[in-house]
């Protein structure tokens, strides 16, 4: 019973955090009470970045890398994929202009990782395969979430 209460409360906090970061409510509250003007797009970016980092940490723990080097490289490669879209997200004043070649390339990479997972799962035992799979499986969806139109 205790774990149900803890999970319910943490789920509520998680849902509230997502709600506040995807609406203008948090920006309005900060401006009303602290006279700090922060665009809601920054909160959305912070939410997506926080979730990506949390998922990366959890995934690297679950996959049990045998080398610390590959674990570090996983964060670097995923960061590079995420940076490609972050740069566009910030430099275009949050009115994202979609670069279709990037989206198509990343969707194809994502599909390739799904095919590899279900058709050739025995190949996912090496650290290099874990690195590529994690970077594509997490980096692509979180990067593409920045493309979601308002």
In words, what does this structure look like?
It is a single chain. By secondary structure, the chain is mostly helical. Helices cover 79% and strands 0% of the residues. The protein has six helices and no strands. Helix 3 packs antiparallel against helix 6 and helix 4 runs parallel beside helix 6 (127-145).
Descriptors:
150 residues, mainly alpha
Most strands sheet: none
Q: Any low-confidence stretches, pLDDT <50, length ≥5? A: none
Principal-axis shape equals globular
Mean pLDDT: 82
Helices, by number, come to 6
Radius of gyration: 18 Å
Number of strands: 0
Distance between the termini: 40 Å
Into which percentage range does the β-strand content fall? under 5%
List the helices and strands and how they pair.
Blueprint: H1 2-22, H2 25-34, H3 40-63, H4 68-91, H5 100-119, H6 127-145
Helix pairs in contact: 1-3, 3-6, 4-6, 5-6
Concise structural overview:
This protein is an all-alpha fold and 150 residues long. It has six helices and no strands.
């Amino acid at each position: 019973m205790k774990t149900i209460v803890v999970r319910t409360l943490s789920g509520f906090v998680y849902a509230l955090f997502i709600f506040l970061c995807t609406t203008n409510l948090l920006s309005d509250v900060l401006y009303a009470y602290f006279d700090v003007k922060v665009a809601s797009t920054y909160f959305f970016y912070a939410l997506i970045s926080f979730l990506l980092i949390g998922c990366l940490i959890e995934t690297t723990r679950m996959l049990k890398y045998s080398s610390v080097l590959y674990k570090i490289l996983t964060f670097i490669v995923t960061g590079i994929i995420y940076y490609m879209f972050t740069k566009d997200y910030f430099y275009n004043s949050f009115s994202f202009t979609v670069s279709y070649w990037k989206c198509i390339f990343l969707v194809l990479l994502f599909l390739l990782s799904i095919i590899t997972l279900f058709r050739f799962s025995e190949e996912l035992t090496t650290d290099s395969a874990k690195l590529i799979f994690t970077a594509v499986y997490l980096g692509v969806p979180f990067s593409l979430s920045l493309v979601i139109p308002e």
